[in-house]
Amino acid sequence: MAQHTVRAAAALGLAGFRVEFKSYQAGIISVLKRRYGPFLSGGRGGIRLAAVAAPGNENPFKPAVKNSGNTLEIRRGDFRLRLDLASGAGALSAAPNEQCLDAFLRSLLSFLLIRSGGLMLHSAGLVKNGRAYLFLGKSGAGKSTLSKLAAGAGREVISDEINLLRPEKGRFMVYGSPFWGEMRADGRPGRWPLGGVFILKKARANAVSPCGGAEALKLSLRCLLNFEKGPAVSGLVLGNAARLLAGAKFARLEFSKSGAEFLELI
């Protein structure tokens, strides 16, 4: 990269992290600006990546993460990152399309969030009275259905698929997410204190009931996105999930898809 003139640059602000991309090729930067427009960030600092467009495909589909302590490497069939963790400088080669860059950013953010005490969770998230509420569930539990009902009732949806959490000053905060499912929205930057976490289940009637700690921890871990393997990261993940369990209110929510009356129970 040093032998080429930078033609394009963009920086993203996601979950309190700043990731800057510079390239002598316009392709990747154009896709980033189009896909993540609301999350474009000014300023300086954070992670700095020299980006190069490279051909590739999604095979293998799941990213492989290798952390040596000083260097982070993340690979998939269509992208490769090498990042110096001390300086924050690195190089990225990636296919210039939204699917590739989404997969790259999800894997990078998962790594960063886990090491900041946070979590990336498969969940629906919405805002009520200035607080964020998350709804965990297996595929088909109703995350997108609930999100659409909430949006139809005028509530702000943070994401119907992936939500980003970080602990700050003794409490968990939920950040705006660009990663969506069926609703296919762009999201917006934002930051809300976590009001509660619900285990989601479709039902004929709306009801809230207590949730045991073991059940809450098990589902939190099942819904957590982590692409790295090994005992060290497993310990971090378990510790972060346990702190979430200790610091947030968990309950079960059975909801009917006939309307948004369930919002009154939150």
Describe the protein's topology:
Blueprint (H helix, E strand, L loop, with lengths): L7 E7 L2 E7 L2 H10 L11 E7 L10 E4 L3 E6 L2 E6 L4 E6 L3 H18 L3 E10 L2 E6 L6 H10 L3 E4 L2 E7 L2 E5 L15 E12 L4 E4 L2 H11 L7 H17 L2 E6 L11
Parallel strand pairs: 2-3, 3-7, 9-13, 13-15
Antiparallel strand pairs: 1-2, 4-5, 5-6, 6-7, 8-9, 8-10, 8-11, 11-12, 12-13, 14-15
Helix pairs in contact: 4-5
Features:
5 helices, 5-stranded mixed β-barrel, 7-stranded mixed beta sheet, about 270 residues, alpha+beta, about 35% strand
Description:
β5 (71-76) and β6 (79-84) form a beta hairpin. The strands form two sheets. This protein has a seven-stranded mixed β-sheet with strand order 1-2-3-7-6-5-4, with helices on one face. It has helices at 26-35, 98-115, 143-152, 213-223, 231-247; strands at residues 8-14, 17-23, 47-53, 64-67, 71-76, 79-84, 89-94, 119-128, 131-136, 156-159, 162-168, 171-175, 191-202, 207-210, 250-255. It starts with 7 loop residues before the first strand and ends in an 11-residue tail after the last strand. The mean pLDDT is 93. It is globular, with a radius of gyration of 19 Å. It is an alpha+beta fold. The chain is built from five helices and 15 strands.
